Amino acid sequence: MFRGSQIAAFVALLERREASVFHACQYLDFLAYLNLGGIPSRALLEQNRQTFTTFDSDGADQEHGVWDKIFVNFSDFGLIFTRGHAGTPNVYGPILFQIHPRALLAANDLAVTLRSAGARDFNRANESLNTLEEVERIFLHPAQAGFPNSSEVRFGKQLEQVFPKRLVRGNPEINSSMPSGRLDLKHTTLILVDPYIFAGQRLVVTVATAAREHGLPCKVVERQPSQAKRYNELTSLIADWGPSFQSVLESGKASSTCSKWLLQLSQNQLEWQFERFARYLLAGTLAPLKDG
């Protein structure tokens, strides 16, 4: 766990590496964040009667004592799908905040863990890294490698190799306790929006309009992946056939490219990830935009 001057040293490490931290959300949650003036804990959303997307991990977060924490990541998880790999778009939402690490200076305490807080038997105090040397081992290249290599982090088996005595699963993450219960939006450097179009309106335009109305000064830009059409094909399939992986796969309505991708997900046993992505997108973005 990092506290006091340790947090400042941690932030300095990220700055030296020119690294950002990231947080993705659905449109429903984005509006709540704007209302609250920051990226909040789930507890703050609840206390302020804000409507937010229900996650599978909500029960575990409460059980593990992290309901009042704010979560950010070292990486943009949306790049997995954007680069054509066998993964879904960011499960947590099509709107990504890129945040300068100085936002973390306001924290009372900060935990860097090597698995999600939603993991079984998660223990924040025991699983947090405790030294900057350990944090350095998260990164794949030395700081001297220069950006963007200096900001690239290990995941999965790469992490297991350098942390053989720690519990590791997936990607490292950061969770923090903030006095205000939120991460101030003034430290947002960019909002990156997946290239969805709903009812003839680009999601990036909807997001940019809302951000401007709330006085958020950062740039709002749209991802430009080569397979941009696949995002909207997915939303059409999910809207018509629901979040069931099997229903979408067997619908016969997916293009050959999308069908091949779905089969790759199945081969990698990621049907659960597709269904989580689809349920969250339906509840947190598609339904709110449809309802106006």
How would the blueprint of this fold be written?
Elements: E1 2-3, H1 5-16, E2 21-25, H2 27-36, E3 38-40, H3 42-47, H4 58-63, E4 70-73, H5 79-82, E5 95-99, E6 109-113, H6 124-127, H7 132-138, H8 157-162, E7 173-177, E8 182-184, E9 188-193, E10 197-198, E11 201-202, H9 203-213, E12 219-222, H10 228-241, H11 245-250, H12 256-267, H13 271-291
Parallel strand pairs: 9-12
Antiparallel strand pairs: 1-6, 2-5, 3-8, 4-7, 5-9, 6-7, 10-11
Notes on the structure:
There is one protein chain. With 292 residues, the protein is α+β, with helices and mostly antiparallel strands. It has one domain. Helices cover 41% and strands 16% of the residues. It has 13 helices and twelve strands. The strands form four sheets. Strands 1-6-7-4 form a four-stranded antiparallel beta sheet. Strand 10 and strand 11 form a beta hairpin. It is globular. The model has no long low-confidence stretch (mean pLDDT 95).
Question: How many separate domains?
Answer: 1
Strand content: 15-25%
Helix tally equals 13
Structural class determined from secondary elements: alpha+beta
Low-confidence stretches: none
Helix-strand topology string:
EHEHEHHEHEEHHHEEEEEHEHHHH
Mean pLDDT: 95
Keywords:
292 residues; globular; single chain; alpha+beta
